[in-house]
């Protein structure tokens, strides 16, 4: 996507062909800074502290982390150790495990003297595949938006509500939930996005609003609890979110608060769609509420918040009463029966085992 007229991916190789560069997403929305990753440990740190985040981007970063490890030591022991360390950085997003398993299976067959080169090629391939997948998701999702636009008066926008950041900052490019929005906007379809702030890390207010603004998409940031009210008053035409892991039966795990949006959408007959690349589908799981591990993050993310003061200084302040215990589950699971459809690179699917398996038979076979 474009940032002030310059084309960016979220992750890329530096001019030396070995150093990995990323956009430091912990600095948003107050600064746009890049970071260089020269070791596997630095890649693992970037994932753990959320300098990179979003399931597809986490997977891509892990693949480059393996490449960096192979550059340092291409042995079998190093390969397995790197995969182990990287896998432990974040527990919920299945793309991490998918990318590392792909790296391990592929590279273990490569002679050690050729392993670093092969690892970089594989990481590049994973990134290019992600972009192609997101382009397809965008085309299928744009058709849904275009159909809604036909029901509107001339010039009236399609109002889309999204939660967290499933934009290009969460992928290598284009995004999942935002790809249909960008394509609709670029294609001349009037759209307006309700951007949930997405406490406690504020990925909606900090990230989604930032990227929509830089792309020129009309949007309004709202408190997380405002979505249901807007749906009751007919101000939301469609909800589109992303997902970090989706089961074989269509249960969707996404940023905490997504489940509440799905409940409100169901109660108000607002279509609730989830945009996802196929690597996000975990064919080994059938019951998302029971089986998907939910990351419990540091309570400081809830009790402290960083913002810019009137003088322009950045300050981190406490917002929770002293002595109160704080819980911070990072994700929740939306059961399949609340999902109108899954927007994938192979079309819009019903959220059930049969439809998912029919669309991705090769993934079902591998997981059996």
From TrEMBL:
Active site: residue positions: 244 (proton donor)
Enzyme Commission (EC) number: 5.3.1.23
Keywords: Amino-acid biosynthesis, Isomerase, Methionine biosynthesis
Top-tier EC class: isomerase
Pathway: Amino-acid biosynthesis; L-methionine biosynthesis via salvage pathway; L-methionine from S-methyl-5-thio-alpha-D-ribose 1-phosphate: step 1/6
Reaction equations catalysed: 5-deoxy-alpha-D-ribose 1-phosphate = 5-deoxy-D-ribulose 1-phosphate; 5-(methylsulfanyl)-alpha-D-ribose 1-phosphate = 5-(methylsulfanyl)-D-ribulose 1-phosphate
Domain of life: Bacteria
Site entry: Transition state stabilizer: 164
Protein task: Catalyzes the interconversion of methylthioribose-1-phosphate (MTR-1-P) into methylthioribulose-1-phosphate (MTRu-1-P). Also catalyzes the interconversion of 5-deoxyribose 1-phosphate and 5-deoxyribulose 1-phosphate. Part of a bifunctional DHAP-shunt salvage pathway for SAM by-products.
Stated family: Belongs to the EIF-2B alpha/beta/delta subunits family. MtnA subfamily.
NCBIfam families the UniProt entry points to: eIF-2B_rel, PRK05720.1, salvage_mtnA
Name of this protein: Methylthioribose-1-phosphate isomerase
């Amino acid at each position: 996507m474009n940032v002030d007229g310059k084309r960016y991916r979220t992750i890329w190789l530096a001019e030396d062909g070995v150093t990995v560069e990323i956009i430091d997403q912990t600095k948003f929305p107050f600064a746009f800074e890049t970071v260089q990753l020269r070791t596997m440990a630095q890649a693992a740190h970037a994932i753990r502290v959320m300098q990179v985040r979003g399931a597809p981007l986490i997977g891509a970063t892990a693949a480059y982390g393996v490449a960096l490890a192979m550059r340092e030591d291409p042995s079998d022991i190093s390969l397995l150790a790197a995969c182990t360390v990287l896998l432990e950085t974040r527990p919920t997003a299945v793309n991490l495990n998918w990318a590392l398993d792909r790296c391990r299976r592929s590279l273990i067959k490569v002679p050690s003297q050729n392993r670093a080169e092969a690892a970089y090629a594989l990481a590049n391939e994973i990134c290019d595949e992600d972009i192609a997948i997101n382009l397809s998701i965008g085309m299928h999702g744009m058709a849904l938006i275009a159909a809604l636009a036909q029901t509107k008066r001339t010039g009236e926008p399609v109002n889309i509500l999204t939660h967290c950041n499933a934009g290009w900052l969460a992928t290598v490019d284009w995004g999942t939930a935002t790809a249909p929005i960008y394509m609709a906007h670029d294609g001349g379809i009037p759209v307006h996005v309700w951007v949930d702030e997405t406490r406690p890390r504020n990925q909606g207010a900090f990230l989604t609003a930032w990227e929509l603004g830089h792309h020129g998409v009309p949007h309004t940031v709202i408190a997380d609890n405002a979505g249901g009210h807007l749906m009751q008053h007919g101000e939301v035409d469609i909800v589109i979110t992303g997902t970090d892991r989706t089961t074989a039966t269509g249960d969707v795990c996404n940023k905490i608060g997504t489940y509440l949006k799905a409940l409100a959408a169901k109660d108000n007959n607002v279509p609730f769609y989830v945009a996802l690349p196929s690597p996000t589908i975990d064919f080994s799981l059938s019951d998302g509420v029971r089986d998907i591990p939910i990351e419990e993050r540091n309570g400081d993310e809830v009790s402290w918040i960083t913002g810019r003061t009137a003088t322009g200084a950045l300050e981190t302040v406490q917002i929770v009463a002293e002595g109160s215990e704080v819980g911070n589950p990072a994700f929740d699971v939306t059961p399949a029966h609340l999902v109108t459809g899954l927007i994938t690179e192979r079309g819009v699917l019903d959220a059930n085992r049969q439809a998912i398996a029919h669309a991705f038979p090769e993934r079902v076979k591998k997981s059996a």
